[in-house]
Specification:
This protein is mostly helical and 151 residues long. It contains 4 helices and no strands.
Length: 151
């Protein structure tokens, strides 16, 4: 449990560090070779934590300490999920391993969405919403008409 929580805390702190650096970094400045290498190692380590360490620690915790094995069937509170094979009404069996694997997949989906969001925030860190609207309003078609309906 400690390893899972520690890896999650480190990943969150590293993500917050990206936003703190984004506020300090001027938009449009060129990147030196050294800065690019440090940034690449930083992002690689963050991805390693997010896609390798955290799901592994979750699966290890669920299977070894909490006993989420394939031979344990979820019955639910009051036997509401008791499968037909065990005398219940639920049409299929749900094992605890299926639940732990589903949670691991949710880790991957959440991390992928967070990384895409962070990339978009980094790329648009100097662009304000009103500047984007003015740019969109200033665009005209090849016939000279505005592409977006104005007011």
């Amino acid at each position: 449990m400690a390893a899972l929580l520690t890896s999650i805390v480190v990943a969150v702190l590293m993500s917050v560090g990206i936003f703190a650096y984004a506020k300090r970094r001027p938009v449009g400045t060129s990147v030196t070779w050294g800065e690019a290498m440090v940034g690449a190692v930083y992002v690689f380590f963050l991805g390693f934590l997010a896609y390798g360490v955290i799901p592994h620690q979750w699966l290890t915790l669920a299977e070894n300490e909490w006993g989420f094995r394939a031979d344990r069937i979820v019955v639910g509170p009051g036997e509401i999920l008791k499968p037909i094979s065990l005398g219940g009404w639920f049409p299929f069996e749900i094992s605890y391993r299926a639940i732990s694997d589903t949670i691991a997949v949710l880790f991957y989906v959440v991390f992928l969405g967070a990384m895409i969001w962070m990339w978009a925030r980094w790329q648009n860190r100097g662009v304000r919403a009103d500047a984007r609207e003015k740019t969109a309003l200033a665009q005209t078609s090849s016939f000279g008409r505005p592409l977006i309906k104005q007011g």
